[in-house]
Structure formats: C-alpha cells, structure tokens
Design a protein that fits this description.
7 helices; mainly alpha; Helix Hairpins; 2 domains; binds fe (ii) ion
Length: about 200
Amino acid sequence: MQGTKIQYKTYEKKDFSHLKNLNGISDKTLEIHFALYGGYVTNTNTLNEKVIELTEAGKSGTPEYAELKRRYGFEYNGKVLHEYYFGNLKSGGSDEPKESSAIGKAICDTYSSYEVWKNDFMKVGAMRGVGWAILFQDPDTKVLSNHWVTLHEEGNIAGFKPILVMDAWEHAFLLDYKPAERPKYIEAFFSNIDWAAVESRLIK
Ligand SMILES: [Fe+2]
C-alpha cells in the first residue's frame, strides 16, 4: 500500500505547576524537575518522528534506526515515570495512608504492616546509583512489591502497574540536600504523598 502514512501520537507535556510548597522539596527543585521531565516528552516525540521517517523511507534495517529504537526504553520510561512521580505528590500530603483504606489494606496484606513495607521501600530508594523506587502491582495476583529501576528502564516488570513511584536520581533533591542525604529526601517525599492518587492506581 504505497503512500500510507504511519500514525503516531504526539505527547503533550502534562502540567504539574499546582505542585508548590511541598514539605522538604523546594519549588526551585520542582521547577528544574518539570523542565527535565519536559525534555523526556520532547525526546519521546522526536524519537517517534525520526524512527517513523526512517520506516517510511524503507530504512528500518539500518544501524541508525536500531540505535534510535534502543533509546525508546530510556525516553518513554523517563516521561512516564515522571508523570507517575509528580502525580503521587501533593502539598499537604501525608506520610501514611489510612489503615482502613484500600491502599493501606493492600500494603498490609502483602507486607504484614505499613512499617515493614515503608522501611523496605525506603531502603530500595536509598540503593546506590540513580534510578527509581517503585511499588508495583502484579495484575494477575494483585500482589504488591517494591522494585528498583536503574536509570529509567532497567528493572521495570512488563505488565506490572506502578502504584507509588519515587524518583531517586540526584536531580530530584540535590538543591535541597547533599548527595549523602538521600534518606532525608526520602522522608520528605513520604510526607508529601497523595495517597488518594496512589490508591486510584490499584487494580481492583
Ligand atoms: Fe527526575
């Protein structure tokens, strides 16, 4: 079918400018972080455009095509994980969900108590290197589990749903804390969690 154009979606940068006055995460950090996130949206769109251009030109098998295709995991996940991260924060958030809430029960069902789960999540987030701490849900078993994702793409589990996402790259806290003070940032992150948003992601 000659002349057929490949369809693709151009992504828009989501607006998280309502996030202000967080506890322990400064507005300046957020402002810089929103700009970094915008870069992932732009790069995801650019990758799609370039790869489709090559595909339409019959150049799918080229090294240039392959190298661009390899970048998808980094740019797409960089975009998506930041949207989950900003989406589970709010000014006036809280450190702990209600024990009787669906998310409180789901966490306790798996980890026996909120404290055990939180300690585990915090330890994952404090792992050396840059990446993400993510509470995932297995869509088959509905069971929750904490995971480390290196960079943006290494460690994601195909099909698992991100429920709570924490950026553990240094750009997420370096204006507010020293590199060795990541645990303080993690404590601050917890105090700003929007548990209603987190709960809305649960697969029932
Ligand atoms: Fe980030």
